């Protein structure tokens, strides 16, 4: 169990595998803990190195959606092991990069792994993305790469992102977004996805639709600047993650990932990159 009593069984297991020197898991998830992006999914070869390269591509696409450039102050919310901060640190200069994560254990790894370069300044801070310990109007960009479904409330996160962003600042994120189905079907999908998903991934809420995002943006003082469906480009992720998680044992298995794969392949759940500008 991580700090703040947030239950993230897959992170418990990843950290255990790293401690045991599991080279494959380290290569797959030592930097980024999110899905991959393949411009042409047919080129995916199922190897862990191919998956790690695709995960870097996904991270870069979210950064692009946020309009990241040199010399800005950027917050990466739900920063995992610091993979997005590491990528930005390698590619941009004169940046103030701040990662926030609820789980101090992940931050310890991030602090050990990510060395500032290119005149960048890097800080990893423990805290809740829905209660940001930062001043108003202190960031140019806020990112949330594949983590908002874990947050206690998307509404509170958007309000906090709006508060800490400078006027005109950008929020970019990736998320699993269900199709706007009827309430009953949505609930059914939510339950199907929830049960095994909870066992491996912990608290996850993937019932927030694109229309919910549009309304939330409007209500919290953002305009939508990008809505990109990359579901197809993420599909080669599933065989790799199922294989690695399937070998881990304990609470973590491949069932949860297979459920998400099924929902994604059927088009019930889409993987979206969204960006918003503070107005
Ligand atoms: C799927 S991982 C993504 C990690 C990272 N963004 C990446 O792309 O590698 C989800 C992350 O959200 C973090 N998280 C969950 N709830 C959080 C919260 N309330 N505030 C901040 N971080 C949170 C988890 O600890 C984990 O690092």
From TrEMBL:
Record's keyword annotation contains Methyltransferase: yes
InterPro entries assigned to the protein according to its UniProt record, in alphabetical order: Erg6_SMT_methyltransf (IPR050447), Methyltransf_11 (IPR013216), SAM-dependent_MTases_sf (IPR029063)
Domain of life where this protein originates: Bacteria
Molecular-function annotations in GO: S-adenosylmethionine-dependent methyltransferase activity
Keywords: Methyltransferase, Transferase
SUPFAM superfamilies on file: S-adenosyl-L-methionine-dependent methyltransferases
The Methyltransferase type domain, residue ranges: 75-172
Protein's GO biological process: methylation
Protein name listed in UniProt: Methyltransferase type 11
Species: Richelia sinica FACHB-800
């Amino acid at each position: 169990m991580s700090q703040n009593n947030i239950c993230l069984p897959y992170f418990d297991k990843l950290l255990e595998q790293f401690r045991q020197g599991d080279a494959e898991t380290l290569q797959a998830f030592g930097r980024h803990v999110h899905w991959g992006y393949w411009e042409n999914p047919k080129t995916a070869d199922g190897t862990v190195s191919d998956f790690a390269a695709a995960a870097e591509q996904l991270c870069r696409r979210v950064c692009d959606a946020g309009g990241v450039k040199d010399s800005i102050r950027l917050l990466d919310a739900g920063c995992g092991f610091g993979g997005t901060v590491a990528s930005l640190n390698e590619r941009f200069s004169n940046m103030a990069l701040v990662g926030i994560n609820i789980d101090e254990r992940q931050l310890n790894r991030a602090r050990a792994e990510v060395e500032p370069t290119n005149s960048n300044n890097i800080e990893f801070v423990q805290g809740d993305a829905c209660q940001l310990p930062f001043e108003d109007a202190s960031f140019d960009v806020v990112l949330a790469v594949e983590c908002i479904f874990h947050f206690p409330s998307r509404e509170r996160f958007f309000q906090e992102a709006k508060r800490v962003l400078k006027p005109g600042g950008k929020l970019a994120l990736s998320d699993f977004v269900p199709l706007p189905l009827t309430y009953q079907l949505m609930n059914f999908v939510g339950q199907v996805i929830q049960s095994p998903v909870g066992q491996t991934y912990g608290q996850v809420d993937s019932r927030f639709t694109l229309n919910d995002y549009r309304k939330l943006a409007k209500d919290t003082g953002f305009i939508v600047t990008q809505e990109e469906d990359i579901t197809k480009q993420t599909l080669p992720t599933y065989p790799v993650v199922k294989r690695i998680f399937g070998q881990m044992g304990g609470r973590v298995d491949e069932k949860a990932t297979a459920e998400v794969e099924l929902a994604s392949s059927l088009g019930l759940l889409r993987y979206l990159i969204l960006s918003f500008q503070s107005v």
